[in-house]
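quick one before i forget lol
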Amino acid sequence: MGVAAETVFGTPVPATNFLPDTQCTLEVDPGWFSPSVMMGQRDLQTFNLYGEQKIAGTVEGPLFPSNGIPLLVYAIGTDAVTGSGTPYTHTISQANALKSVTVEKNIGGYQSLQFAGCRVGKIALKCAAGNEAATITADIAGQKAAVMDTPTGITIVNEAPFTFANGTLTLFSHARTEVTSCTVDIDNGLKETYTFSGQHYPSFITPVTLKVSGTVDVVWDSLDDSTYGDYTTMENGTLGALVLALSQGVDASVTVNVPQIALSKYSNDLKVSDVIMSSLTYEGSRDLSNPGTVTAVIVNSVATAY
């Protein structure tokens, strides 16, 4: 799966960044329908019509320092890059207008489907202990598609994805080393608008809302400890930050910051012959003194802004 930012919404550009993905379900629904009418026939479908064409699907793969990382950038907002040499630091700030991108679905290296006018509607980061990489899952909506008989040449940066051993989590200003799993879900509330444009595809794909939420699983310690007492934190309505950082040293890292969260659910999992686990559900909200509900900092070898 390849991706590149567009200069003009819906005008395709060649892919410049590629994700070694595990699945890509991005497909075209042409919007075929046939109205049911009474005309002295038993056939339920007579007229072949086309209404709203939809392009939607999910792209999923390991979370790398740079391969596929534009999906995270374009789900949040704008990139400001600093540094005079490797590594470079990309500071991702929340924005109301999200970039449109071209997504290329390479099929066996023989042909590609090129989807133009795409935006990232939802993105989920997950890092869990186990023999698995951290993952990025992006729900994408697009405007139109074209067949490429000659796919764009695939270029993959020689780097490894992150795992839980690369991860640290800070919750309400406390480093939580007993975490076993963490997710960060960003939902941009995409709205497709169809107009009298003479085309079946949407004229606008607009991010109209923003919601950030997720879960954290920890080994249980206490109900009311000042650091580990998540139950009391929830009951007191305590507000604080969540920072998920994945690092492979000074040259490669991804840090996601949700400056203000509240715990909305808390539960303990009690099982015979197992340690006690706690599951936390959090909701992000905007603190007017902070730049937004979610920001990120990416350190890698890419010199230009995404």
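fyi The mean pLDDT is 96.
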